[in-house]
Structures are given as structure tokens and as C-alpha cells.
Amino acid sequence: MLFEHPPRSRWASLSLMVVLLTSTPGLARERAPGAEGRSEDAPLQAPAAVASPPPSRPGFQPLAVPVALVPGLLFHGLGPLVAGDTHTAKRLFAMEGAGLGLIALGGVPIALTGASRRTIAPLYAVTLAGFSVLGISALANLYSVTATAFEPGVAPPVLPPLELEVGYQYVNDAVFDYRHFVSVGAQARFESLRLLGGVRVAPSEGNTQVRLGGAWRLLGAPERSLLGTDGSALDAEAFGQFHRYPTEGFAVVSGEVALRGRLAMARVSPAMAGSFAEVSLGTSLETYTYPGAVSDGNLHEQLLFTFGYGVWLGRGGPFRGEAMLYYDHRKDSFAGGIRSRGGGVVGAFGLRGRALLTETWGVAAEAQVGGALVGRLSLLYALGGAR
Amino acid sequence: MRRGVKGWMLAALVTAGCGMRPAENRAIVDSKVGQAQQGGLTLVVEDGLASVRELTPGTLVLWGNAPAFSARIDVSAEAPSDWLVMVRNAMPDAVLVAEDAAGGPLAQESLPQALPTVKVWRVALRAGTSVRLSVAPPDAESPEPFRFLALADVQEALPRVGDIYARMRRDDAARFILFAGDLTSSGTREELLEFQERLEAGSRVPLYATLGNHETFTRDAAEYHALVGRGSQSFVFKGVRFSVVDSSNGTLDPAVEEQLEGWLASSRDGTHVVAMHVPPQDPVGLRGGGFASRGEAAGLVGKMARAGVDLTLYGHIHSYYSFTNAGIPAFISGGGGAIPETFDGVGRHYLSVDVGADEALRQVALVRVD
Questions:
Q1: What's the CA gap between A118 and A121, in Å, rounded?
Q2: In a designed cystine with B360, which of A200, B26, B77, B310 is the match (CB 3.0 to 4.6 A)?
Q3: Rg of chain A, C-alpha, whole Å
Q4: 3-class SS at A145?
Q5: Interface probe, candidates B211, B220, B246, B296, chain A, greatest A C-beta count within 10 A
Q6: Separation CA B6–CA A374 (nearest Å)
Q7: Rounded to a whole number, what is the distance in Å from the CA of B306 to chain A's nearest CA?
Q8: In chain A, where do the E strands start and end?
Q9: Number of CB atoms found within 10 A of residue A89's CB
Q10: Is pLDDT above 70 for A387?
């Protein structure tokens, strides 16, 4: 029957989380000597005690940009190396090597074990950790040679306690009739707690997704007071979701938990100041209900995994926000996974940005490419956002 | 710069065959399977249930992909009158009924063959007429219960597949094998021909298949279409409907789903078995070996459940799983020998399935080969 696979898979899920978190570079610095005695909510600072002075931010070298593309996307440190930034080059070569190594370490056993139900979770964790490190180093390679032409952005010093948003979402999925959605959402920020909610409704078709949850900041300063920090953080997240598909005749109810870590890439190299890497790992349980005589009763698990590379927008003024290019492994979103010749294993890629343009008004946008194309544009309104 | 990266990624995805409807082309090619015009004949196999392997003056060779099928033939004035009609992958007891447009029988002679699934007839076709050929075992429409075998995922274990056929030969009751995709490693012509040669040499019953994602690795399954048949098709045997659909991209193309809806409607009150390669839902959710969209998967299994499907059979995952999807009994039986799922205690295997038109699903048994 469906749930004949052993309880060991729960332990495997846990181990998957641990591997990814420990593979996120820099988070371990939370416990570096320079940080001892600091409370959990204290702002994260770049490590102070180092043997030698950190290298300074290099200057812009135009020739490094094309090299970072070709062959830099294959050899991630080449762009910075051409720019004379050996410190960054070494870090990127090391990250790329680590990423490829982790992919091999997890991927080869997956192939050899036929993706065994007994071992898939930890092996998946190692493999995805490898892809995240590899993907982050690829994008960091591009950023490190282009961003030096500009003054880097900084993490928003302060964010408002309440943000409301309303927008439009377009979905082009060959297998679903829905296309146009109204999108509304809200985000409330407390000290360590953030509460988030969102609703997407297709008025003509009736497809409705309601998502509610929150995030608890385990490490790093609260979003409402990031001033003086580099924005690195670790959050525990929990969400519940209801999604109704009236045309297809079913609804899905799910609950999920995840850990999400964000690392200011300036900790890796000064050339990456203004950017951050983000990795999240979690799991969801979901159940499907079918109106009428159809009875399912199964509880389905899902691996939740994302990684991304982003930049902070704004330099300490009223304009503040972020943009991130990311990969999302989940298959129950509007984008779903990519329908490829390997089946449905690969998730979706996306680009999202969110920025307050003034003290009270802002915009958010997102584009995703998975099995479907998804685009969303929202207007933000901030309450209590005086800085 | 970032826009350039995203454009590069999109281009990479599209060229990798990951468009919005990656299975659309195969659905189109499906509709042309079983059609040929050559040697003075214009041939259309109804519902594409056989592929045309050879059509030259005086010789017609078909690869059957269903226990019973019919073909409509227009004979030109220039066509020869003496024809050899060979059906490979036929039911061992299949007979040929050849009729002219008025329903009158045509002269024919059955020629003995060494292989049980190869049937050959000498048929006299009159120039300038239309004829209908039907190939089926005598009991194809009688509603008694029967047994078939379910198998998937041979791939690189093709040299050892004879072991599976040898085990299957010990079961005299099995009528045919239903194969849920991944016959070969990469779907090349050479691999598929080897698969069929080993099948004919080792099995006493035919094998009716849908394609798997590995068949798409070579020219988007063009060789599969030429040598085996449709990726999505439906046939009725002894009152039980069998529908196989091409899910090899982790999705059903909308055109295929529309076909399936028709088959579901036509068998709403009867026994219906549906098979596909990639299962909509992987029972090990963390692995996620099912469809790319969980919403699409749920919609599909719900649709099948509402239409009263009695059994769903899948491959792609190289082990044995018994579960339910939207209440429908479901089995994954990827035991053809491709890199096996370790630590599952199963090994190479197939399913023995007893069904009946009046009794629906009677029994599913796991048969171990190793």
C-alpha cells in the first residue's frame, strides 16, 4: 500500500535538512570566536578577528565580463581571475569543485541504487546541496565581475511592520484552463516572527489558492531592524495551504515546514558585496480530496528545496528591496516542475523582486519557468513604515 | 546580464525538449501510425493498433500492438493479386478474416511458422477493390476472465530479458504482456529491433506496449513509432478495455488527455485498465518520481477514478509498489531489469493480473524472476 515505506524515511528527511544547512557556507560563522556571547537576536556582523586584513573590493575590469560567461560558466573562477581578483577566483573554484563533488557524491549512489526508497532522502540532500553550491558559484562568478562597476546595494536597514499587496498573476499551463488570477497578500513583521498570507483567485475559472504561515528568525537580526548587519539569517518556516481546482474536480490541503538560510556573499568575497545566497529545505504533507464518490485518503510527502542568488536593491534610502534568481524544487505550485525527457524530477526556475519605492509604496514581481509559465506583478502598500 | 542568463537558461530548456508541450509532437505522430501507401495498396490500421513494418508489392508486414485489430485496404488497379500478409507480435491463436467491401470472404491460406507470435497468410486481393483485414483470436469478444502479465523497464538489461520470458512461459494462462515503457536504454533502431527479436525468440505470447522516457532519447521516439506503434492507444479484449498513454515527460499532452477522456467515457460501465510509464504520483513523495505537476497528477487520477477505472499500471520506478491513487488500485512494476531499486527485496519481477469483463479486477500477483 501507499505508506508501506518505512518510518526511516522520516529520519532521512531530517538528515537531508542537516546536510543542506551544514553545506550552506558561512552560516557556521555564527559561532566564530568573534561572535561569542552574542544573543541570538543580535545583528550578524562580518567576522572581526582575522589573521590578515580582508582583501578590498576589486575594481571593474570589462574584459572579465565576457570571460565570466564563456568559459566562465564552466570554470567559475575564470572571470575574477582575469580581473586580477585571485581571492574571489579561488573561492569560486573551490565552490564549484565542492558543488560538483557533492553532485557526484549523491548522484552516483542514486543511480547505482536505482533511487532506492531507503536511501533517496539523504542522497537527494547531498545532490541538491551540490547543485545549490554549483548554481550559486556560477551566478556569483557573473556577479563578482559585473557588480564591481557599481556601488553595491545593502540589506534594507529597516522594513515596515505591515505590508499589503494586490496584483495580477498570469499562468500559462498547457494542461490547465486557468490563465488570469487576482493576487492579494499581506506580511506582518514582529520581532522574530513574520506572518505571511496570500490568496490567488482565478475569477472566471474559480481556481483558488490560500496560503498562510509564518517564519521565526532563529539566527540573525529581525527584518524590521537590519541596520548595521549584513542581512545573513536563518529562519524556521511553517505554512498551510489550501488549493481548489474546480474544473479538475479536486482540492489539496497541505502543511509544510522548512528551514531557510540566507548568507551575505560579502562574507565569501568583497567582490560579492551587495549580493546574497539563499537555500531552503523542508518537507510538506498534503492530502487530496475529490468531491463525490471518489475517495483517496492518502497523505503525500514532498521534498521542498530552493536555492537562489540575489542582490539587495537600494543603498540605505527609502528605496529598498531585493531581487533573486532561484530554483524551486516543489511540484505543487502554479509553475510545477519542468516536463522533461527525464520525467518530472526537475522543479522550476524563477526570478523575483520586491522593493519599496517610497516609505509607503512599492512593487513586487515574479516570473517562473517550470511546466508552466507564471508571471506576477503586485503593488505594495506599507503601514507603519516610517524609518 | 541577468536577462541574458535567463534567456540562456530558457534556450537550454527548450533545446533539451522541455517546452510547454514536450509530448505534442509524439501525439501528432501517433495519429499516423498504421498508415502506408505503397506497392499498390493504401493501408489504414484502425486506431493505429499495428505499425506497418513493410509494404512492397505482394508483401505486407505488420507489428501488432493489440490482441485484435483491423485494417482497411484500398487495392489499386496496378497492385498484384497474390499477397503475403505477415503479422508479427500476434496472438498465437490469431486468425485472419479477409473480406471485400460487400462482406464477402477473400481466398486466404494460413502458412505455418516456427515462432508462436508470428502469423503469415497468403491472401488474394482483387485489383481496384477495397478490403478489410481483421486479425484476432477466436475468443477476442467473449467475456470470460483472462490473465495478462504487466512488465516495464528493461532498458540495459535487454541481454538478460530472456530470463523473464522463460519465467513467463511457465504460465499457460497468460494471454499477453502489457508493457509500461522503457523497452530499451535509448530507443535506437538497433535496440528496438533487438528487443523485438528477443521477444519473438523467448516469449510465447505477444507484448503490447507504450513508450517510456528512454524511448524518447532517440529522435523523440521516432524509431518506436516506426517499429512498435503508438505511444497512446486503446483496445478492447474480451470485454476489458486497455488504454495506454504516453506519460514519458511526466505529463499527458492535452491531445492525449482528450483521447483518454474518450476511452474513459466509452468504458465507464465496463472494466478498464489504464497503463502509462511515468506514474502520476510517486508513492515515495520525497523522491518525486511522478508527474512534474502534482496538480495535473491529482486531476488525472481523479478523472480516472470518476470514470470507474479498475486498475492503473505504471513503470519508470525500478521496483514494485502497490498503492492506490484516488482510490484506484495502482501498481508500479518496473522490474524488467533496469538498474534495480536496491534494498527493496524484490529484484526482477512482473505482475500476473486476472481480470474479467463482468468481474473487473480479480487478482494481481507479484511474480519474481530472480
A1: 8
A2: B310
A3: 21
A4: helix
A5: B296
A6: 14
A7: 6
A8: 162-172, 180-189, 193-201, 208-219, 233-245, 250-264, 275-289, 300-313, 320-328, 348-356, 361-369, 373-383
A9: 23
A10: no
pLDDT tens digits, A34-73 = 333 344 344 444 444 444 566 788 888 899 999 999 999 9
Cross-chain residue pair A341–B249, CB shorter than 8 Å: yes
At residue B160, φ and ψ (nearest 5 deg) are: -105, 5
Name beta bridge partners: B324.
B329
- Summarised one tens digit per residue, pLDDT across range B266-302 is 999 999 999 999 999 999 999 999 999 999 999 999 9
Distance CA A300, CA A184 (A): 28
- Which of B6, B293, B318, B322 to mutate: most A Cβ within 10 Å? B293
pTM: 0.89
Neighbouring C-alpha atoms within 13 Å toward the C-beta of B76: 11
Which residue's C-alpha cell is 542568463?
A: B5
| pLDDT at residue number A55 | 72
Q: DSSP code of B221?
A: G
**Contact at CB, A338 and B299, closer than 8 angstroms:** no
Q: What does the pLDDT read at residue A377?
A: 98
Strand, coil or helix: B60: strand
ipTM: 0.90
| Residues paired with residue A200 on neighbouring β-strands, in sequence order | A183, A209
**Alpha-carbon span B229 to B242, nearest angstrom:** 15
Cis peptide, bond prior to residue A71, ω within 30 of zero: yes
Nine-digit cell string for A225: 531592524
Residue whose entry in the numeric block shows the C-alpha cell 524530477:
A345
DSSP class of B332: E
Q: Which of B169, B47, B187 is nearest to B117 (CA)?
A: B169
pLDDT tens sequence across A302-324: 999 999 999 999 998 899 999 99
Q: What is the mean pLDDT of chain B?
A: 94
**Short-list B26, B1, B10, CA closest to B249:** B26
Which DSSP string corresponds to A338-364? Answer: --BTTBS---EEEEEEEEESSSSEEEE
Closest CA to B350 of B214, B73, B199, B154: B154
Between the CA of residue B328 and those of A32, A292, B16, what are the distances in Å?
55, 15, 34
Q: In chain A, positions 133-162, which contact chain B (CB-CB < 8 Å)? A: 139, 142, 146
For residue B275, what are the contacts with CB-CB under 8 A and spacing of at least 6?
B150, B178, B180, B210, B242, B243, B244, B245, B312, B313, B314
- The residue that leads in pLDDT, A16 or A95, is A95
Q: What is the β-pairing status of strands B233-237 and B349-356?
A: unpaired
Closest C-alpha to A95, from A232, A267, A345 = A267
Coil, helix or strand at residue B186: coil
CA-based max dimension of chain B: 73
Contact B45, B35 (CB under 8 A): yes
User: DSSP 3-state assignment of B210?
Assistant: strand
Strand-pair partners of B234: B243
Helix A120-146 with A8-23: angle, nearest 10 deg: 20
- The verdict on a CB contact (< 8 Å) between B343 and A370 is no
Would you call B200 helix, strand, or coil by DSSP? helix
Inter-chain residue contact B1 with A339, CB threshold 8 Å: no
Would you list the DSSP string of B7-59? Answer: HHHHHHHHHTT-SSSTTHHHHHHHTTTTEEEETTEEEEEGGG-EEEEEEETTE
CA-CA distance, B237 to B252, in Å (whole number)?
24
Of A76, A121, A125, which is closest to residue A103 (Cα–Cα)?
A: A125
